[in-house]
Amino acid sequence: MCGIVGYIGEKQAPHILLDGLRKLEYRGYDSAGIVTINENRLQLIKAEGKVDILESRLLKENPRGTVGIGHTRWATHGKPSDENSHPHLSNDCKVAVVHNGIIENYMDIKEELVAEGYKFYSETDTEVIVHLIKKYMDGNFEEAFLKTVERLNGSYAVCAVAAAEPDKILCARKDSPLVVGLGSGENFIASDIPAILRYTKNCYILEDGEFAVITRDKVVVKDSKGNLIEKKLQEITWNSEAAEKGGYEHFMLKEINEQPEVFKNTLRGRLKEKSVDFSELKIPEEDIKAWKKIFIVACGTAYHAGLVGKTVFEKLLKIPVEVDIASEYRYRDPLVDKNTLVIVVSQSGETADTLAALRYSKEAGAKVLAITNVVGSSIARESDYVAYIWAGPEISVASTKAYTTMLITEYLLAIYFAEVKGTMKEEEIYPLVEGLRNIPTNAVQVLENQMYKRIAEDLKNETDAFYLGRGLDWAAALEGVLKLKEISYVHAEAYAAGELKHGTLALITEDTHVITINTQKNISDKTLSNVQEVKARGAKVIIIAQGNDETSKKYAEKVLYIPEMPDLLTPVITAIPLQLIAYYTAVAKGTNVDQPRNLAKSVTVE
């Protein structure tokens, strides 16, 4: 993994490929490269590091050609290096390949090829692909490519070019996203739409097992047996400016500040005067009534959204809910059957572990509902039902608006299901509906607070920080801690406040920063008693509370207030102060906010 871009047309390809790779930088990567076809020979330039390094090499070497493919790599097999970066060439430098995913049987193939005399110059699994193509190439590039793909086990989005057939690009996919953009006298390939959005709004989204032959004037899509497939043209409805910073210093800050408007998009058409309308799902009411249990399965930030969802669904639907980390889910043989709803949550809709959990659940007989941001993603296509969060493109690796819209979508689903099941009365539903209606306005108020920078100045020199909360506040704390760790590199831990005395209190020393979320009124006194325990040991306490909670002021150096709202809904708004504390701490420390080290936006391998 991580990013693929390709071009064939009449223009010079290097500039277009470089531009596409820059649009994919948000995904996280450790090297980049391009290859073009010029006068029936391949010109390869690649480099470890950022696209800027690649660009400097392009300026020196000035490659030419109107056909080419490019790649940004996030290391899976082999360390980041020039040699391991993509594209990879055949030994005779006549074929080139880029690839996202993991080839699980690459070692067996490599041993076979080495025995036949092929030389390998990288540690990657990808290099076996280009040598297999060359092995099978007997005057027909397309046949060689298909034979190669048939031998691959694992996940892949792969694109290839050959000097012998300079008028085409071949590509195929399995469990890794790939789109083909359509132009006039030119066509494009990308692993993600922003890479080609500047050039076209029309594309084909390739499905698993599909193979495409792309020329300047035509795109032919076939199945693995060579049968033609009629693809539906997809029109991209958002513009390239939506993927730019819009005047903000970082994409993350832009996306945090977009949340009030994004919340309106998530709610639009789903909120009625006193109820929720999620009829867009087209779920038969008898199925909703038959569900006896819910699993929520996700990774990272989406998993934290699931922890909030557990409380919400159990409270409103009166049925048990389990939350699983997707990478663990199918390995523990969960008890899933036809009376179970499995909710998979993924911003990208391509998260490998979550996709595997989805497939496991369907095989077990459960219905699967996806909460995702990307229309046409693998998870969206393979689920029985899809609830889109409508967060728009999220460029920063650290998720913000996608997380909060996942929460809002869970609230909407829970209320809708509760109405169908009859587990809530109208007078219980109405305050939640009104609370959701006020969410965008509440978000604006929280964004106007100016204390976040001052808190960040205190945190920037810390090596450790602790976040506390109970119930929903603890779930919110977990996400707040993740944000701080992943972009500022400050070590932080979130604890259910009552667990402090069971060991963690030993880590609290004088001047330790403790951020406490205290929005759940029914357990506020319990949370504050735990705060008193850390204060007695000299900790510096910051509290996030509702309304104008005077009691919290007695326990904290600083109090951040969110507007008064139903306790059940507070995690959405609580997330915003935590996002901004993390953001300004990272800025104060001078880290790469949008592309934190070692991380990728979309984790498309296990």
| Strands, total number | 24
Mean of residue pLDDT values: 90
Q: What's the number of structural domains?
A: 3
Percentage of residues in strands: 15-25%
- Gyration radius (Cα, Å) is 26 Å
Secondary-structure content class: alpha/beta
If helices are DSSP runs of H or I spanning 4 or more residues, what is the number of helices? 20
**CATH C-level name of the largest domain:** Alpha Beta
Shape descriptor reads globular
Q: What CATH architecture of the largest domain would you give?
A: 4-Layer Sandwich
Head-to-tail CA distance between termini: 11 Å
What keywords describe this structure?
single chain, 606 residues, alpha/beta, Glutamine Phosphoribosylpyrophosphate, subunit 1, domain 1, Rossmann fold, 6-stranded antiparallel beta sheet
Description:
The chain is an alpha/beta fold. It has three domains: 242 residues, Glutamine Phosphoribosylpyrophosphate, subunit 1, domain 1 (4-Layer Sandwich); 187 residues, 3-Layer(aba) Sandwich (Rossmann fold); 138 residues, Glucose-6-phosphate isomerase like protein, domain 1 (Rossmann fold, 3-Layer(aba) Sandwich), CATH 3.40.50. The protein has 20 helices and 24 strands. The longest helix has 21 residues. The relative contact order is 0.09. The model has no long low-confidence stretch (mean pLDDT 90).
Compact summary:
The chain is α/β, with parallel strands linked by helices and 606 residues long.
List the helices and strands and how they pair.
Blueprint: E1 2-8, H1 13-23, E2 31-38, E3 41-48, H2 51-61, E4 67-73, E5 88-89, E6 95-103, H3 106-115, H4 127-136, H5 141-151, E7 154-162, E8 165-174, E9 179-182, E10 187-190, E11 202-205, E12 211-214, E13 219-222, E14 234-235, H6 251-257, H7 259-267, H8 285-290, E15 293-298, H9 300-317, E16 321-325, H10 326-329, E17 340-346, H11 352-363, E18 367-372, H12 378-382, E19 385-388, H13 401-421, H14 426-437, H15 439-447, H16 452-459, E20 464-469, H17 472-488, E21 491-496, E22 513-518, H18 524-535, E23 540-546, H19 550-553, E24 558-562, H20 570-589
Parallel strand pairs: 15-16, 15-17, 17-18, 18-19, 20-21, 20-22, 22-23, 23-24
Antiparallel strand pairs: 1-4, 1-10, 2-3, 2-4, 5-6, 6-7, 7-8, 8-12, 9-10, 9-11, 11-14, 12-13
Helix pairs in contact: 1-2, 4-5, 7-13, 7-15, 9-13, 9-17, 13-14, 13-20, 15-20, 16-20, 17-20
